[in-house]
Amino acid sequence: MPVTVHLPTVLRSHAGGAKSVPADGATVGEALTALAVEHPGLSGQVINGDGTLHKFVNVYVNDDDVRYLAGLDTPVTDNDQVSILPAVAGGAVPLPPPLQV
Amino acid sequence: MTVYGSVLDLIGNTPMVDITALSPNPDVRILIKLEGQNPGGSVKDRIALSMIEEAEKGGLLAPGQTLIEPSSGNTGIGMAMVCKLKGYHLTVVLAANVSPERRQLLEVWGAEIIDSPGEEGSNGAVRKARRLAEEHPEWAFLYQYANPANPRAHYEGTGPEIWRDCPEVTHFVAGLGTSGTLMGAGRYLKERNPDITVLAIEPPAGELVDGLRNLDDGYIPPIFIDNDGADLLDGKKIVRPRESIEWTRRLIEVGIFAGISSGAALAGAAKAAETIDSGTIVVVAADAGWKYLSTGAWTDDLDVVEERASKITYF
Question: What positions of B carry a catalytic annotation?
Answer without folding.
Answer: 44, 261
